[in-house]
Amino acid sequence: MRILGIETSCDETGVAVYETGRGIIAEALASQVELHRPFGGVVPELASRDHIAKLSRLVQAVLAEADCSPGELDGIAYTAGPGLIGALMVGGSFAAASAYALGIPAVPIHHMEAHLLIGKLEADALEFPFIALLVSGGHSMLVDVQGVGRYRVIGNTLDDAAGEAFDKVARLLNLPYPGGPALARLAESGDPGAFDFPRPLADRGLDMSFSGLKTAVRRAIDRERAEKNGVLDAKVERNIAAAFQAAVVDTLVAKCARAVTETGRQRLVIAGGVGANRKLRQDLADWGSANGVAVFYPRPAFCTDNGAMIAYAGAARLVPGQAGPPGVVARPRWPLDELQPPGLN
Ligand code: KG4
Ligand code: ZN
């Protein structure tokens, strides 16, 4: 089975072809970072327009690289939500129209499901059930994953998501958009012990809250600036980045540990953009080997948004012989635990 996957939920146009038994055979990603940088964040209308401008050529290039004609595809998977409505509509319309013309199903995919399933493509040993730590720009979630479409959300975002906290603190430090990766780079050369930031709710429950931590960082920055006539010393900046990153990572490790203890699961997968964070990967791997828990993480390029995860989820969801839903499915808000196993929704 060959599936074309299309991701357009936010600021990356991602396209890939997945073939069962072979894996991802071609993929491409067009980033909109330069387009949005002057605005310090994603401008939804610009995002939609850029998806329109890039998508068709990207699909042609990926099909050519895969040596696959459109007629050899068995289905077209696309991100149907959650995400920016205009951006979702671009990928959804393209997928639904192409699938209709080819007489194959269009398969609407939940973006967060794609994030949590891609770990399975990366490691055969990642069998169900497992715990997924899903940390992206819009969500921090802990999910008990029992099978495709069988998700129990056991911990959720109470306010700012982990990636959002990275992005907001990066802005406080005047780092260029996109802030998260820039902040993580700065943190590598800082001293995490130089500031003692809170580990929010690390000692209780599975829900996650990062807005108080962001406020603590803002106060520290204001204090340091006030002491130095409004200028933030470069070393202090690095230390703040490192101490903030350590606080987020410690909190996420504590939450994962509690999720594993409470559910008795023995496998943990890190997913979503923040899953690309080196310190998070290292600390969770160390915790896993000390506690007999197998920790999996996709390669960094499969943690951040990409077309491969949509193609792979499409293959997991496509039921041979079953038509896709009529029209375009686009759901800006879409709770993960509304999903059902393939064929049931
Ligand atoms: O999954 P993703 O690419 O898009 C969403 O679905 O939201 O996640 C993007 C988020 C952004 O907030 C970005 O700052 C964060 O992931 N991120 C990182 C790193 N790379 C991306 N956060 C910390 N360290 C990184 N290396
Ligand atoms: Zn994402």
Number of E strands:
10
Low-pLDDT residue intervals, each spanning 5 or more residues: none
Write the CATH fold name of the largest domain: Nucleotidyltransferase, domain 5
Rg estimate, integer Å? 20 Å
Task: Output mean pLDDT.
Answer: 97
Secondary structure elements and pairings:
Elements: E1 2-7, E2 12-19, E3 23-31, H1 33-36, H2 44-65, E4 75-81, H3 85-102, E5 106-110, H4 111-122, E6 130-135, E7 140-147, E8 150-155, H5 162-172, H6 179-187, H7 211-227, H8 234-263, E9 267-271, H9 278-291, E10 294-296, H10 300-303, H11 308-317
The chain binds 5'-O-[(R)-(carboxyoxy)(hydroxy)phosphoryl]adenosine (KG4) and zinc ion.
What is this structure, in a nutshell?
With 345 residues, the protein is an alpha/beta fold. 44% of the residues lie in helices and 18% in strands. The chain binds 5'-O-[(R)-(carboxyoxy)(hydroxy)phosphoryl]adenosine (KG4) and zinc ion.
How is this structure best described in words?
This protein is an alpha/beta fold and 345 residues long. It has two domains: 2-115 and 303-338, 2-Layer Sandwich (Nucleotidyltransferase, domain 5); 127-299, ATPase, nucleotide binding domain (Nucleotidyltransferase, domain 5, 2-Layer Sandwich), CATH 3.30.420.40. The protein has helices at residues 33-36, 44-65, 85-102, 111-122, 162-172, 179-187, 211-227, 234-263, 278-291, 300-303, 308-317; strands at residues 2-7, 12-19, 23-31, 75-81, 106-110, 130-135, 140-147, 150-155, 267-271, 294-296. The strands form two sheets. A five-stranded mixed beta sheet has the order 3-2-1-4-5, sandwiched between helices. It has a five-stranded mixed beta sheet with strand order 8-7-6-9-10, with helices on both faces. It starts with a strand and ends in a 28-residue tail after the last helix. The model has no long low-confidence stretch (mean pLDDT 97). Bound molecules: 5'-O-[(R)-(carboxyoxy)(hydroxy)phosphoryl]adenosine (KG4) and zinc ion.
